[in-house]
Amino acid sequence: MTAFVPHLQPHPTPASSDGRPSLRHVAVIMDGNRRWAAEHHMAPRDGYQAGAAKVTEFLSWCDQTGIEIITLMAASADNLLHRDPRILAEAMDIIVTALNELADHGRYRLCPIGRLPRLGPVTEHALHRVRARTTDAPGPTVNIAVAYNGREEITDAVRALLARHLRQGTLSSLTERLSPQDIAEQLYTATQPDPDLVIRTSGEQRLSTLMPWQTVYSELCFIPAYWPDLAHSDFARALTSYHQRHRRFGA
Ligand code: IPE
Ligand code: MG
């Protein structure tokens, strides 16, 4: 009988030497912008504007703690499908302007992720430029999920693998030896550790397609504040809670 040899990836992030779980990658679902605007008797775009201002603040909090990768869920593919196109266009303008300002700032490596062609050629081009302008930035990497759907990310990864093996004539051997690692290497996050902590604001408690592959062992933190109201103390509490957890990874 052949021995059972599991195809396993290494732990997303091993514990640091003091036994506390280390925190290399934090992902955030920045929810509650429109509700914040409605509560202030403002238009949705004012909520997105306030949300964009919070992004700058949030990134500096992360930077101070030495987090290497920050994923920001800005607009899902389902948002694009189901929301008023006028309000979406305003939101995308605010996102692109905020990213250009961050790129000017020069600290962060900005990586827009998602099916960017869905946003139209002008926005797609602007996002590619933001990426190109910041590839050598010294600070943390910031993934910005726009037109993003986690199942599509996995689907695209499998498609890319199949296409490559079809070209190479190695499709039949792929069916024998396809491993989780092969798929992980085709994702937007191929070279990054998985998110250690996922934070969602506004009190909603779900992941809404954010990185289903990469979050299997992520710790989750749900914060009642709307995204534009997120305070540094909320973030600090989330970090304290995370560092008190015992990550077992099935052990
Ligand atoms: C968040 O703000 C957008 C996300 C992709 C998470 P919303 O625009 O969803 O604001 P609410 O949730 O309707 O208040
Ligand atoms: Mg929402």
TrEMBL record:
Co-factor binding details = Binds 2 magnesium ions per subunit.
EC numbers: 2.5.1.-
Cofactor field: Mg(2+)
Q: Where does Mg(2+) bind?
A: D31, E219
Positions with a binding annotation for substrate: G32, N33, R34, R35, W36, S76, A77, D78, R83, R200, R206, L207, S208
Classification via Pfam families = Prenyltransf (PF01255)
Which GO MF term does the entry hold, naming one? transferase activity
Assigned keywords, A-Z = Magnesium, Metal-binding, Transferase
Report the top EC class in one word: transferase
Map out region (Disordered) in residue numbers. Answer: 1-21
Give the positions the UniProt entry annotates as the active site.
D31, N79
Its annotated function is as follows: Catalyzes the condensation of isopentenyl diphosphate (IPP) with allylic pyrophosphates generating different type of terpenoids.
Subunit structure, as described in the record: Homodimer.
Q: Which family is annotated?
A: Belongs to the UPP synthase family. Z-FPP synthase subfamily.
Q: What is this protein called?
A: Isoprenyl transferase
Q: Which organism is it from?
A: Streptomyces pathocidini
What's the name of its gene? uppS
